[in-house]
Design goal:
Alpha-Beta Plaits; OB fold (Dihydrolipoamide Acetyltransferase, E2P); 231 residues; alpha+beta
């Protein structure tokens, strides 16, 4: 079994569609290997894939590389190692990430420029449940522990968002649902692509001449989701 660093947190028909879509995505990733798989959701919302067959180990590695992996925590996280979690909340003190256990990244260790954590969220278009890589600082109470921080590669990724074309980031919707919404709103010509960030987190990459806040305003009424522009 591999626990992927992406969550399924919608209900009803939307949940069924999301998990059907996840099955198709897993098939794209490992369908040519000699394996069988079953997609499920843990109590904490993380997607898990049970993999069996001759190529099971290879398939698990492919899925972990593609989606990120929530590691087993029997022995706890290791200080100085890089992990991936999902952005669950933020306040004046920093970010709280869910990596199977809650990990707090203090405001001073976010490393994305000036401003409060809430201002960083707005400036970089971060949405709840976005997968985020971090370096674990150590356990609470450990005298040798350092603060956890965002990984350098993660900071680079987010800065690259600001340097490129404008973006509108979305959660609570599959890639197909976001593309259909953009088309229904009559703005297909205003985007380059919809980039998949997770099962239910997407990034709409705008054309050079498209104003992201304008696109958000145009599609917002069609999509019951959290949406933020990269500015």
């Amino acid at each position: 079994m591999v626990v992927l660093a992406t969550k399924c947190y919608v209900d009803g028909d939307a949940r069924d569609r999301a998990l059907d879509g996840m099955g198709s995505l897993v098939a794209n990733d490992v369908g040519e290997l000699s394996v069988d798989w079953q997609v499920g959701v843990r109590d904490d919302g993380f997607v898990q894939v049970d993999v069996t067959g001759e190529d099971a180990e290879v398939a698990r590695n492919v899925l972990a590389e593609t989606w990120g992996e929530i590691v087993a925590h029997d022995g706890g996280l290791t200080a100085g190692e890089e992990y991936v979690g999902t952005l669950e909340s933020w306040d004046d003190d920093g970010f709280v990430l869910d990596a199977g256990v809650d990990v707090r990244v203090p405001a001073d260790e976010i490393g994305l420029g000036r401003g409060s954590p809430a201002q960083v969220v707005e400036r970089f278009g971060l949405v709840q449940h976005l997968s985020v890589r971090f370096v674990y600082g150590g356990d609470v109470g450990d005298p040798d522990a350092e603060p956890s921080r965002l990984a350098d590669d993660e900071r680079d990724r987010l800065y690259d968002w600001q340097r490129g074309n404008g973006r509108v980031n979305v959660n609570s919707a599959t890639r197909g649902e976001v593309r259909a919404t953009v088309n229904r709103a009559g703005h297909a010509q205003d985007i380059v692509t919809v980039e998949r960030l997770g099962l239910l987190e997407q990034s709409i990459v705008c054309t050079e001449n498209t104003d992201p806040p304008g696109l958000l305003a145009a599609i917002g009424s069609y999509l019951p989701a959290e949406m933020r522009c990269v500015v």
